[in-house]
TrEMBL record, chain A:
Subcellular location: Cell membrane
Pfam (any one): FeoB_Cyto
Membrane topology: Multi-pass membrane protein
Record keywords: Cell membrane, GTP-binding, Ion transport, Iron, Iron transport, Membrane, Nucleotide-binding, Transmembrane, Transmembrane helix, Transport
Protein name: Ferrous iron transport protein B
Domain FeoB-type G, chain residue ranges per copy: 2-162
Family: Belongs to the TRAFAC class TrmE-Era-EngA-EngB-Septin-like GTPase superfamily. FeoB GTPase (TC 9.A.8) family.
Function of the molecule: Probable transporter of a GTP-driven Fe(2+) uptake system.
Gene name for this UniProt entry: feoB
InterPro entries for this protein: Fe2_transport_prot-B, Fe2_transport_prot_B_C, FeoB_Cyto, FeoB_GTPase, G_FEOB_dom, Gate_dom, P-loop_NTPase
Positions of transmembrane segments: 271-292, 312-330, 337-357, 384-404, 411-437, 443-463, 502-523, 535-553, 560-580, 600-620, 632-652
Originating organism: Exiguobacterium aestuarii
Automatic annotation (TrEMBL), chain B:
Keywords: Iron
Protein name: Ferrous iron transport protein A
UniProt keyword Iron present: yes
Pfam families the record matches: FeoA
Residue ranges occupied by any Ferrous iron transporter FeoA-like domain in the UniProt entry: 2-77
Organism whose genome encodes this protein: Exiguobacterium aestuarii
């Protein structure tokens, strides 16, 4: 059996949690509206078919790019059944989507999630009544813990059912019939006519293109009922949902002040909110670097540069490998890949905290705290969520920009995202900060993140000015979900999900890059095993070194590592490790004579800003859909990086820093 | 009729006019349960004229909207 089941529901109701439960996938979950931005397909347990996880929607009428995916899916793609996940604590709102799905007449089951949240708010849900009223199966589940999910899975059915019919009143019903006749559809497609009257953009575009005469039907209806058709339909749906709620929910003792209220009173406090946010960010970096990441990284490095290197050398000697192979493995692969692998612990810790913030519900509050500031540069508070995710990796950050409804704001958010210092840049900071700023590592690294944010905001301001010729509107509305304590398993899964890409990169890109760089460094115009200064790498790096002199790091080594950094930013460290043919801890020592603290900082700033990595360029291309804009988004950073590093280095020298 | 922006904190009022705000904002508010005739209250105001946190009293649904938008939303103070 290979049935396709679509998972549909309001944002942040636990669709992805359920998806992970039912398919054994590790898809990304969070506690903010808009975590899922594209459809994901997973194999259902027991091989009964496929489950398709769709972005959350409140209505089949899409307002943003990720929501349009759902409407297009339902209209154009084949599927055999739907699971509608409903948040029991927000029944009335959720039911308005459920009604639209019921009207479609496709096989449908309801997973009633967050019954526990509803109970804690003193609401008791009468399941049997709900089942009878909706005429479909309703399964109580707790997607986060998995309770009830197996039962839902074993009861998936794709039997045909009659479309649910809600009477919208005589005038509207007549208009529905006329539209169906004009577009040549049968009564089972009644829902399409309703969606048309309700103003669903996708349906409107689809139908009016082929049957323009239906516009007149809508106009006539609006004259007859004396108001907009969509307003009438929405109200009718709401009344229906309200009726259902009154019938199935029994209100018991209602708590007045909830935990969420108490936390919100502090973290969205008018004055304290902002310092708390920056405190949270600082704590995140402090724990990542000083407390957990650095000690484990040192341990790993000791292992790599000690036993593993000497073991490899011993083994290669034993099998009689040629000096070429020895150099390739020890100076190329171990130095290059190892130089990056030692940072895996830091990156895991960073992703863990980002996942924690996402899953707790704090992200939605950050949107409030930051909105005023983001507005100053023409963005909105929601743009800050993709930016924070960009701290982990720019690729999902840029994709998360889809939740920003306004197209102009979405584009600007994408353009400035590469300035968000992703975890791949961490190894570079870690090496330099450890060598030159050993006492203030967290502070130096935080300052680079802040520099990135600051420049991103300035860039946003400029782009907004350039793009917003006539369109100055901005849409800001953010749902504030109740806080919840993130679950261990969920946290681990989303941390692993994000961090494994980094490990995989070490095995592919960085491995390949390391071998290539080592070859360039090992060979030169005069043959193999040349002194490093006469290698091809030195020649290539030397080409741009002259340009870099005013920035304080005009060496061929810096030039060469910057070129290779386009593959993936951590390759900068690999390259340096290969050039200086040392492990990471010794790399610090090798850098000391070449950089000064000032030029090291200037170099770090340059690396932060100069170009997005290859993977980021690819995702920008996909998200902006224009080669010209992609070129621009990828290259303007180079100019910014040059100017910023120049200013840092030259002004720093004026003030007597070395 | 007064405006949502000027309502005192934690005072329950009735939403009465959503016609002057952006069409998409209105739709989104309505789909979140903030329709004309429902009871809402302002829970917090962010600093520097930042967003308002408002609650749909009946649903305990909380959202944040901008103060500039709240200025175009009419309410009835009972």
């Amino acid at each position: 059996m290979n049935q396709r089941i679509a998972l549909i529901g309001n944002p942040n109701t636990g669709k992805t949690s359920l998806f992970n439960r039912l398919t054994g996938s590790f898809a990304h979950v969070g506690n903010w509206a808009g975590v899922t931005i594209e459809q994901k397909i997973g194999q259902l347990h027991g091989k009964v078919g496929q489950l398709i996880d769709l972005p959350g929607v409140y209505d089949l009428d899409p307002l943003s790019a990720d929501e349009a995916i759902v409407s297009r899916f339902l209209l154009h793609e084949p599927f055999d059944g739907m699971i509608n996940i409903v948040d029991a604590s927000q029944l009335e709102r959720n039911l308005q989507l459920t009604l639209q799905l019921l009207e479609m007449g496709r096989p449908l089951q309801i997973g009633l999630n967050m019954v526990d949240v509803a109970e804690s708010r003193g609401m008791h849900v009468h399941l049997d009544k709900l089942k009878t009223l909706l005429q479909v199966d309703v399964f109580p589940i707790t997607a986060r813990t998995g309770d009830g999910c197996d039962f839902l899975l074993s009861s998936i059915q794709i039997e045909k059912r009659q479309p649910f019919e809600l009477n919208y009143g005589p005038e509207t019903e007549e208009a529905i019939t006329r539209i169906l006749r004009l577009i040549g559809r049968s009564r089972t497609d009644r829902w399409i006519a309703i969606q048309y009257l309700a103003g669903n953009r996708i349906v409107v575009d689809h139908l009016e293109a082929s049957s323009p005469e239906i516009v007149a039907v809508r106009k006539e209806l609006e004259t007859a009922i004396g108001r907009f058709a969509h307003a009438h339909i929405t109200e009718r749906r709401r009344d229906w949902a309200k009726q259902i709620r009154y019938q199935v929910i029994e209100n018991q003792n209602v708590q007045d002040v909830t935990m969420t209220d108490r936390i919100d009173a502090v973290v969205t406090h008018p004055i304290l909110g902002l310092p708390i946010f920056f405190g949270v960010l600082y704590a995140l970096f402090h724990v990542t670097f000083n407390w957990i990441g650095a000690p484990i990284s040192d341990l790993l490095d000791g292992l790599l540069s000690g036993p593993i290197t000497s073991g490899t050398v011993w083994m290669l000697d034993a099998v009689g490998a040629s000096p070429f192979i020895q150099a390739l493995l020890v100076d190329g692969v171990i130095a290059g890949v190892g130089g990056v692998l030692v940072f895996v612990p830091q990156i895991f810790v960073l992703f863990f905290f980002i996942s924690f913030l996402e899953d707790s519900g704090y992200m939605a509050r950050v949107a409030i705290v930051m909105d005023r500031f983001m507005q100053l540069v023409g963005l909105n508070g929601k743009s800050f969520i993709p930016m924070i995710i960009g701290f982990g990796c720019n690729v999902p950050g840029i994709m998360a920009a889809r939740t920003v409804e306004e197209e102009r704001e979405r584009l600007v958010t994408i353009f400035i995202s590469p300035f968000m210092s992703c975890s791949a840049r961490l190894p570079i900071y870690a090496v330099f900060a450890a060598s030159f700023f050993s006492t203030h590592q967290a502070l130096i690294v935080l300052s680079l993140y802040m520099l990135g944010i600051f420049l991103a905001l300035i860039a946003a301001k400029i782009f907004t000015k350039a793009l917003a010729a006539e369109d100055q509107t901005s849409l800001f509305i953010v749902e504030q979900p109740p806080y919840r304590v993130p679950q261990g398993l969920t946290l681990w899964r989303s941390t692993w999900q994000k961090a494994k890409g980094f490990v995989r990169k070490a095995g592919t890109f960085i491995f390949g890059g390391s071998v290539f760089i080592w070859l360039l460094a090992y060979s030169g115009p005069s043959g193999f095993d040349v002194p490093m200064n006469e290698s091809f790498l030195a020649m290539i790096g030397g080409l741009i070194a002259t340009v870099l002199i005013p920035l304080g790091f005009g060496t061929w080594q810096a030039g060469a590592s910057l070129i290779t950094g386009f593959l993936a930013k951590e390759v900068v460290v690999s390259t340096m490790a290969i050039i200086y043919a040392v492990g990471e801890s010794d790399l610090s020592d090798s850098l000391l004579p070449i950089f000064t603290p000032l030029s090291a900082y200037s170099f770090m700033a340059f690396v932060l800003l100069y170009v997005p990595c290859l993977a980021t360029v690819a995702v920008i291309r996909r998200e902006v859909g224009s080669a010209k804009l992609t070129w621009f988004a990828s290259l303007y950073g180079l100019g910014v990086a040059y100017v910023v590093s120049l200013v840092i280095y030259q002004v720093g020298r004026l003030f007597g820093f070395a | 009729m007064s405006l949502l922006r000027h309502v005192a904190l934690n005072q329950t009022v009735i939403l009465s006019d959503l016609t002057k705000i952006d069409d998409r904002l209105r739709r989104r508010m309505i789909s979140l349960g903030f329709y004309e005739g429902c009871s809402v209250r302002v829970k917090r105001r962010a600093i520097f004229s930042g967003p308002l946190t408002i609650e749909q009293v009946d649903h305990q649904q909380i959202i944040a909207i901008r103060r500039s938008d709240a200025e175009k939303i009419g309410v009835i103070v009972p």
